[in-house]
Specification:
This protein is mainly alpha-helical and 486 residues long. 62% of the residues lie in helices and 0% in strands. It has 19 helices and no strands. Helix 2 runs antiparallel to helix 18, helix 9 runs parallel beside helix 17 and helix 15 packs across helix 19.
C-alpha cells in the first residue's frame, strides 16, 4: 500500500525546537495519565483489577495493596481526563520532540504493563476461559464457561460466564495456546496472553513508525496516536483487549503488498470480524488494478474461509446476536428508550439497525469526499470512524482501530473527533466491572453511562456530520492546483 506525504507543515516535518510551556504541559499530562494507569496495576486487585487465581510467584505481579474502590476509580477517571486533554493538546502543539522519544516511552510502558495484572475490565478472564475450553477439547462457540464451574480457570469468570465466545477462531487459537502454557493457573494463562498483547501493541507501534519514515512530523503524530496514546495504553495495553491483535494484523496488512496483504487481512478478520472494514481501504486503492485486487481479495477470502471453517459456521452466532444489541453509552440507547416507550420491548431492533446503516452511509460518503487522500489507510480510517460513530453497540477499546489507521492517514481534524469520542466514552465505563461499583457511585452508570455520555456523543456525532459535509463541499470546490501534494 502507498502513503501520501503529510500536508502538515508542507511535508517534511522538523524535529526539536525549544520546548514551550503548553507543549511540556501536554506531554506531562500524557505521562501522568500513563503513570496512573501503571499504578492501578501495581496496587493489585481492586474494583479496577480482577484477582488472578494461581501461585503468587507466577507473573503478573503486583503489591497486593488492596486499594479502595473509590481511590482506583478516581485514578482511572484522572488517567482518562489527563490522557484525553494531554493527547489533544500534544497533537496541536508546535513543539516537535524527536518522535523516537514518545515511541520508546509508549513501548516501554506497554512492556511494563504486560507484567502487571490487567485493569479496566474482566474480559481477560473470559479470554482465559475460552482458551481453557478449547485446550480441554470443548468448543468455546458451543460451550460456555458456566458449563465447567468447578474448573479453576473457567470458574474464575466474573461476567458473561453463560455466553459462548464472540471472538474469531484466530483469537481463540491464541487463547488456547496460552491455556496450554498456563494450565490450571489463571495468572499464568493471562500472563502469556499479556505477552502476546504487548508484542502486538509494540509491533504495531514499530510498523507505524516505519510506515511514516521520511517525515518526522508524521512519525511524531503516529507515535502520539498509538504508542504514547494514554487512552490506548489504558484500554489496550492495561486492559489487554483482543482488539490489539486484530489491529496489529490490519496495520501489517496495510504496509504489505499483494498476497501478504490479503493473508494478513484474513487473519485480522479471524481475530475480530468487524476489523474487516479495513479491507475496504485496499479494495478502493486497487480498484483500477483488477489483477492486483483479485490477488488481495482472493487471498483474504480464502484465509477467512479457512479460519472460520475450522471453527464451523456457528462461530458467528454470538457475532450475529451482538449486532442486534445496543450498548448503554451510545446515542442509540436514547433512541431505543424512545422506541420502547412507543412500540414496546423488542420493537426497536429493526429501526435502530436501519438507522445506524443510514448514518454510517452518510458519514462515510461525506468523509470520503473530504479525505485529504484516497490511499488505503485513509479510506479504511473513514469507514472505521463512520462505523464507530454509527454503531449501536460500541465500547471504548473499539476506538483503537481508528487511532491506528489515522496514524497512517494523517488527518488532524478527524483525530480531534476521535480523541473527544474516546475520552467521553471511556468515562462512561468506570469501572467496567459492574459488581465492584460502590453503591454511592451508582451515578457513574445511571448519570454518566446512560445519560450524559449518550447525549454528549450524540452532539459529537452531529458535529462530525456537520463538519464532514462542510469539508466535503470545500473539497469539491477546491481547484486541482490546491490538492494535497502527492
Amino acid at each position: 500500500m502507498t502513503r501520501e506525504a503529510s500536508v502538515v507543515d508542507g511535508g517534511q516535518g522538523r524535529t526539536g525546537g525549544v520546548p514551550r510551556r503548553p507543549g511540556v504541559a501536554a506531554y506531562g499530562a500524557m505521562g501522568l495519565s500513563a503513570g496512573l494507569t501503571v499504578l492501578i496495576g501495581v496496587l493489585g486487585p481492586s474494583a479496577m483489577v480482577p484477582r488472578l487465581p494461581g501461585p503468587s510467584w507466577q507473573p503478573p505481579y503486583s503489591l497486593q495493596a488492596a486499594p479502595g474502590a473509590h481511590l482506583v476509580i478516581a485514578m482511572g477517571a484522572a488517567a482518562i481526563l489527563l490522557g484525553g486533554a494531554g493527547l489533544a493538546a500534544a497533537l496541536r502543539s508546535s513543539w516537535r520532540p524527536d518522535p523516537r522519544w514518545p515511541l520508546a516511552a509508549g513501548c516501554a510502558v506497554a512492556g511494563l504493563l504486560a507484567f502487571l495484572p490487567p485493569s479496566g475490565s474482566a474480559d481477560h478472564l473470559n479470554y482465559a476461559a475460552y482458551g481453557r475450553l478449547a485446550a480441554l477439547g470443548h468448543d468455546p462457540y458451543a460451550v460456555t464457561p458456566a458449563a465447567l464451574p468447578a474448573d479453576p480457570v473457567t470458574g474464575a469468570v466474573e461476567e458473561w460466564a453463560g455466553v459462548t465466545s464472540v471472538y474469531g477462531p484466530a483469537a481463540t487459537a491464541v487463547q488456547a495456546l496460552a491455556s496450554l502454557v498456563g494450565g490450571d493457573s489463571v495468572r499464568l494463562t493471562v500472563f502469556v496472553m499479556a505477552l502476546v498483547n504487548a508484542a502486538a501493541f509494540i509491533g504495531t507501534a514499530l510498523l507505524l513508525h516505519r510506515f511514516t519514515r521520511g517525515d518526522t512530523d508524521l512519525q511524531r503524530r503516529a507515535a502520539l496516536l498509538w504508542a504514547a496514546n494514554p487512552l490506548m495504553i489504558y484500554h489496550l495495553s492495561a486492559g489487554m483487549h483482543v482488539d490489539t491483535l486484530a489491529i496489529a494484523c490490519m496495520v501489517a496488512a496495510l504496509t504489505a503488498h499483494g498476497a501478504r496483504t490479503g493473508l494478513l487481512l484474513g487473519i485480522g478478520i479471524g481475530v475480530k470480524l468487524n476489523a474487516g472494514l479495513v479491507a475496504l481501504g485496499p479494495a478502493w486503492e486497487l480498484r483500477r488494478s483488477p489483477g492486483r485486487l483479485a490477488v488481495v481479495a482472493g487471498t483474504a477470502t480464502a484465509t477467512v474461509a479457512a479460519v472460520y471453517a475450522v471453527a464451523g459456521p456457528h462461530a458467528l452466532d454470538q457475532v450475529s446476536a451482538a449486532s442486534r444489541k445496543v450498548s448503554l453509552a451510545t446515542p442509540w440507547q436514547l433512541v431505543k428508550t424512545g422506541l420502547q416507550a412507543v412500540f414496546g420491548p423488542g420493537a426497536y431492533s429493526v429501526w435502530i439497525q436501519a438507522g445506524s446503516l443510514l448514518l454510517l452511509a452518510v458519514l462515510a460518503w461525506a468523509m470520503l469526499r473530504a479525505a485529504p487522500a484516497d490511499t488505503a489507510p485513509a479510506v479504511a480510517a473513514v469507514m472505521v470512524v463512520a462505523w464507530l460513530f454509527a454503531a449501536p453497540y460500541a465500547l471504548p477499546w473499539y476506538d483503537g482501530l481508528a487511532f491506528a489507521l489515522l496514524a497512517m492517514a494523517s488527518w488532524p481534524a478527524l483525530e480531534g473527533f476521535m480523541v473527544a469520542r474516546a475520552t467521553v466514552l471511556s468515562l462512561g465505563y468506570l469501572p467496567a466491572r459492574e459488581a465492584w461499583r460502590p453503591a454511592d457511585l451508582e451515578w457513574t452508570k445511571t448519570l454518566l453511562r446512560e445519560t450524559a455520555v449518550p447525549w454528549t456523543l450524540l452532539a459529537l456525532t452531529a458535529a462530525l456530520a456537520w463538519w464532514a459535509v462542510r469539508a466535503a463541499g470545500r473539497a469539491r470546490r477546491r481547484p486541482a492546483s490546491a490538492a494535497p501534494r502527492p
